[in-house]
Amino acid sequence: MLTDELRQELQARIAAAITPREAAVDVLKVLQSHYGWLTDEAVEEAAALLGLSPLQVDELATFYEMLYRRPVGKRVIHVCDSISCWAMGGEPLMAHLAKSLGIQPGETSADGLFTLLPCCCLGNCGEAPTMMVGDTLYGRLQPETALEILQKERTTITKEERP
Reduced to 3 states, what is the DSSP secondary structure of residue 132? Predict the structure, then answer.
């Protein structure tokens, strides 16, 4: 359920856009941050705020690969699988991460911390292979350095959850 404060923030974002549809992805990203993923309730709330049908909002949500219509871990790991990253070791990087986390691409680790997803392009071709954890982009990765990054993320998540 949206708080009054969040509803007002979203309404302000929509009002600042030329058309409500223009603000749709931004609204979905905020709702995803609020709920952790785009629940059916979030899609319906977005539709009501934007003056769109829930189907129109769901179509947007399922089109963009960084909008999640199912639960994800506290950090989503996007591993680029573009031709540049593939040529520079993206496939072994993905395999190493999957093995280390005990999951397959598309799954969430048993502790609920990480979801591992392939991504068609992160726009960082000159720094291949690349992954993004949350909103942070990392390039020129080796499997070992990627695991070091995840260990730092794990520590950060643990600190965030402490009272």
Answer: strand
Task: Name every residue whose Cβ is closer than 8 Å to that of residue 46 and which is 6 or more positions away in sequence.
Answer: 24, 27, 28, 31, 52, 57
Interval 43-102: pLDDT, tens: 999 999 999 999 999 999 999 989 999 999 999 999 999 999 999 999 999 999 999 999
What pLDDT digit, counting tens, does each position of 110-151 carry? Answer: 999 999 999 999 999 999 999 999 999 999 999 999 999 999
Choose which CATH entry (1.10.10.10, 3.40.30.10, 3.80.30.20, 3.40.190.10) describes domain 75-161: 3.40.30.10
Query: Distance between alpha carbon 123 and the CA centroid of its chain, in Å?
Result: 15
Structure tokens at 18: 């030329």
Distance of CA 54 to the CA centre of its chain: 21
For the entire predicted model, the pTM comes to: 0.87
Furthest C-alpha separation in the chain? 49
Per-domain residue ranges for the chain? 4-63, 75-161
Fold that domain 4-63 belongs to in CATH: Arc Repressor Mutant, subunit A (1.10.10)
